[in-house]
């Protein structure tokens, strides 16, 4: 592809190190370990889009990881390029609407002068490349912590190699994984997208080489990774400002499942995110008003420790954090949706995550919310129950190793 070749040539000429994935990975096949590593580490990404790319599940997952990092506040430059006359409508229809507003060119295939023009525009954007630090990127920070925990297992490289095989990492990566901190960091990147069963097998293999404290911390960092990465991405507000009247609907039966979704979305970040839970079913005739008053009290008490109305004032650093209020409501109705709307009228910056039970609210109820986001792919009862049982098993891992469980 002329555009790809020219972009790579121009970036290399300016001292950048472009990494290119040209493999055509059919839907259902595994992530390439190298690409997962690149997506989690890169300071910038150029996304070349044509009709074929828009139909690719692989491209969608790549873009999701990139936009996930950006939504977490990472100083990551993402440059989409529309090729072969592709329009922003097609990008939106493919579910990649976040990339739609930026359009550098519409190039017919094989047009050398257009390829040069696109490469020049991409290069000019690289002059805006922000300085990156792990502390500014929660995903990279999470991966760094996992890599640090895994480093303890380097005393037995055989176990690191076996864990890598359990994650189905290609054999040619094994020598690098068993030597040096970079190898442990590479292995940590694979935990980011590993299916839960593989993660559990890998953790069981590594556990004998880790201290009880390290196992506990590693388990705590990994128990929410069962949540689908695309659903997790949608738990976060768009980058660039505070959330506005954001409502999330999750077809979960257990409230702790919602906590896993937030932990997965925020990569376990302790700074910048606050999560609280409440309930409060209406008892009288004023079903909407009772809910709103109860939730208003809960917001002040849970997030700001302000039980007395005289103490109810918002701190100056309010928008430096994201506030998630988890509400368990198995069958939300129109009154419930109206109450959430009134709550957002009081606290427009509040993110409300509603667990709706095993079913999805009917469309008329969903329409009563103000632009509510249904977290997809939807959960099944089996997935949620399996995740709960796996989590309990992993938490008890240190005791199982010592024979006290």
Automatic annotation (TrEMBL):
Q: Which Pfam families would you find in this protein's record?
A: TIR_2
Q: Where is the TIR domain?
A: 1-112
Membrane-crossing segments per the record: none
Keyword line? Receptor
Q: What is this protein called?
A: Toll/interleukin-1 receptor domain-containing protein
Give the organism, scientific name.
Answer: Streptomyces cinereoruber
């Amino acid at each position: 592809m002329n555009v790809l070749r020219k972009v790579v040539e121009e970036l290399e000429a300016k001292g950048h190190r472009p990494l290119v994935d040209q493999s055509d990975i059919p839907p259902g096949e595994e992530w390439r370990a190298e690409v997962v590593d690149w997506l989690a580490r890169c300071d910038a990404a150029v996304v070349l889009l044509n009709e074929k790319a828009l139909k690719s599940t692989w491209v969608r997952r790549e873009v999701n990881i990139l936009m996930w990092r950006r939504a977490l506040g990472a100083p990551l430059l993402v440059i989409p390029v529309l090729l072969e006359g592709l329009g922003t409508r097609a990008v939106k229809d493919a579910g990649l609407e976040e990339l739609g507003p930026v359009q550098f060119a519409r190039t017919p295939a094989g047009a050398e002068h257009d390829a040069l023009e696109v490469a020049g525009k991409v290069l000019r954007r690289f002059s805006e490349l922000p300085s990156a630090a792990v502390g500014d990127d929660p995903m990279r920070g999470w991966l760094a912590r996992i890599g640090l925990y895994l480093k303890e297992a380097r005393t037995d490289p055989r176990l690191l190699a076996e864990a890598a095989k359990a994650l189905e990492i290609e054999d040619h990566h094994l020598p690098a994984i068993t030597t040096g901190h970079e190898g442990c960091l590479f292995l940590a990147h694979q935990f980011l997208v590993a299916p839960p069963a593989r993660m559990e097998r890998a953790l069981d293999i590594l556990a004998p080489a880790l201290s009880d404290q390290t196992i506990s911390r590693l388990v705590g960092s990994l128990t929410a990774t069962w949540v689908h990465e695309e659903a997790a991405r949608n738990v976060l507000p768009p980058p660039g400002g505070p959330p506005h009247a954001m409502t999330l609907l999750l077809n979960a039966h257990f409230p702790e499942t919602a906590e896993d979704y937030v932990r997965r979305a925020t990569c376990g970040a302790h700074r910048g995110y606050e999560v609280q839970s409440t309930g409060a079913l209406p008892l009288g005739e004023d079903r909407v008003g009772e809910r709103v008053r109860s939730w208003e009290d809960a917001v002040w008490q849970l997030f700001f420790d302000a039980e007395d109305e005289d103490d109810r004032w918002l701190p100056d650093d309010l928008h430096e954090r994201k506030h998630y209020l988890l509400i368990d409501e198995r069958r939300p109705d129109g009154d419930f949706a109206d109450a959430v709307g009134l709550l957002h009228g009081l606290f427009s910056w509040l993110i409300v995550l509603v667990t709706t039970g095993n079913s999805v609210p009917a469309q008329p109820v969903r329409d009563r919310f103000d632009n509510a986001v249904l977290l997809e792919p939807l959960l099944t009862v089996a997935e949620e129950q399996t995740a709960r049982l796996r989590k309990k098993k992993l938490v008890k891992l240190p005791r199982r190793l010592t024979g006290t469980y």
